Amino acid sequence: MAAPSAVNQQPWEFYVVTNKETLQKLSGASPYAGMTAKAPAAIVVCGRKEGLTIFYFLLQE
């Protein structure tokens, strides 16, 4: 939260996932997320585009 962001928009959101079914689904989201299938919890970091004045700094490809 102390990291700088473009125009100080701070477009990040954090979700703590503990639901086993959701963790199983998340394990297929990336080649590096397989361990979430057996994890007790996961933190999902998301970027929010709504309300941003400069949204293209949020994009990650």
Written description of the protein model:
The chain is α+β, with helices and mostly antiparallel strands. The chain has one domain (8-52). Helices cover 11% and strands 20% of the residues. The chain contains 1 helix and 2 strands. It has a two-stranded antiparallel sheet. The two termini are 22 Å apart. The mean pLDDT is 86.
Radius of gyration: 14 Å
Count of separate structural domains: 1
Q: What's the overall geometry?
A: elongated
Class from helix and strand fractions: alpha+beta
Number of strands: 2
How big a fraction of the residues is strand?
A: 15-25%
Measured between the Cα atoms of the first and last residue, the distance is 22 Å
- Strand/helix succession: EHE
The tally of helices reads: 1
Detail the poorly predicted runs.
none
Q: Percent helix among the residues?
A: 10-25%
Strand order of the largest sheet: 1-2
Mean of residue pLDDT? 86
Instruction: Specify the biggest β-sheet.
Output: 2 strands, antiparallel
